[in-house]
Structures are given as C-alpha cells and as structure tokens.
Design goal:
By secondary structure, this protein is of the alpha/beta class. The protein contains nine helices and eleven strands. It has a nine-stranded mixed β-sheet with strand order 4-3-5-2-1-6-10-11-9, sandwiched between helices. It has a two-stranded antiparallel sheet with strand order 7-8. Helix 2 packs across helix 4 (about 65-90) and helix 6 runs parallel beside helix 8 (about 195-205). The protein is globular, with a radius of gyration of 17 Å.
Length: about 240
C-alpha cells in the first residue's frame, strides 16, 4: 500500500448527488462503502467535508449575511454532513468518531491533535468538522491544516472530476488533464485546485495532494493501492 495515513477531503457539493440541494443518501452510502473498504485494509483515515450542499458562507455575504455569521453557518453545515457520513459508516460497521473545531458536545468531541491521532491509531475513521473553527477560512484550508497536524502522508481530494485540467472539463471540452503537476505550476497557470491559503500550506509543509474522482466507486481503493488515477500535486 502506498499510504498509511491519509486526509480525505470531500466536497459538500458532491454529497448532493443528482439533487440540487442537501444530501443524496445513495452518494453518502457510496462514500461510506469506499471508506470502510480501505479502513479494513488498515489505512488510518481522517476526513474533512465541505458544507456547500447546505450553505456556503461566502455566497451568503452576497445576499446580505454578515460574513462572520455566514461562515459560522457554513461551519455548522459541515457538521451536518459529518454526522450524515458518520451514520452511513455506522451502517457499514465501520467505527468512527466526529470531532468538531467548535465545542458542541455531545454532537461531537472537541478537536485536538492528540485526540485525533489517538483515534486514528486505534483504527477509527476520524471526521473533522466545523472547518478550522474560524471565519474567513475555507474547508480546503481546514483540510490542509488537519492533514499537516495529523502528519498525513497525503491529502486525497475527492471531487466530481478525475483530476486537474488546463480548464474546467465540464465547461471546456478541449481541456487537457495533468497526470502530475507542481505547486509552482498551479500558481503560474492560475489553476483553481484549492484556495491559495490551503495550497500554500501544503507547499510549505511538503504535503502532496492527489485529486481524483470519488464519485466512481472503487477509485479510493485504487488510489490507496497506488494505481495511476487522478492528478498528483507535489513539491519538486
């Protein structure tokens, strides 16, 4: 196996599945099956989920919401998604823990690195919710922060597309996929893989990112086994 400890970043939008809002039960169940499968292989798994399927703080500001309150609403949306995934993992018989960056016991335990690493080493899938616990930071940055804190081997960014392209492949049919790309190339080409704060954190801490299509069932196991799918972002 290529990796021992991973941070899996899932987008909130992906949880919508074929819906226009909220949580598609079939999609969450598919994710839970894939996560349970690699957990049984002995992989230590930390997870961060976005909240865009329910509420995105930055979008809220365009509709009159205060940015700090809007971001707080977005953080709570990630907790809802974390609980949905936790429940689906329970149904798979996969033991898991939900940690929150904001105190809200008994919904989840308050995050600390020591607690997170302890659970990971005990074989729990550990879901990190509520972002960083601070406004003005995205869940991409939350993912980078948690991945670096738990000393993950890689951040796996599960999306709806099968990697990084020269342009949005859903809008531009001439877009070309990269098999691998450096952080500097992402900056220079202006590619929107993650926000700049998150990308810079990964670059400075030499954390590789692998972007792949999580919606194709079985892909997560392929990534863990080192098969050449997705796009690897690395520090040369």
């Amino acid at each position: 196996m290529k990796y021992k400890r991973i941070l899996l970043k899932l987008s909130g939008e992906s949880l919508m599945g074929s819906q226009k809002y909220g949580i598609d039960v079939n999609r969450v169940e598919s994710y839970a099956r894939q996560i349970s499968e690699i957990s049984q292989m002995g992989i230590q798994i930390g997870i961060v989920i976005g909240g865009g399927n329910i509420f995105r703080g930055l979008n809220g500001t365009t509709k009159g919401f205060d940015r700090v309150k809007g971001d707080s609403m977005g953080m709570l949306a990630t907790v809802i998604n974390a609980l949905a995934l936790s429940s689906a993992l329970d149904n798979e018989g996969c033991k898991n823990k939900v940690l929150t960056a904001i105190r809200m016991e008994p919904i989840g335990e308050f995050y600390s690195k020591a607690k997170a690493v302890e659970y990971l080493e005990q074989g729990y899938v550990t879901i990190f919710s509520a972002g960083t616990g601070n406004p003005f930071f995205t869940t991409d940055t939350g993912s980078s922060l948690r991945a670096i804190e738990i000393e993950a081997d890689v951040m796996l960014k599960g999306t709806r597309v099968d990697g990084i392209y020269t342009a949005d492949p859903e809008k531009d049919p001439t877009a070309v996929k990269f098999d691998k790309i450096t952080y500097d190339e992402i900056y220079n080409k202006g590619l929107k893989v993650m926000d700049l704060t998150a990308t810079t954190m990964c670059k400075e801490n030499h954390l590789p990112i692998l972007v792949f299509n999580m919606d194709t069932e079985g892909n997560l196991k392929k990534v863990i086994n080192g098969e050449a799918i997705g796009t690897l972002v690395y520090e040369k």
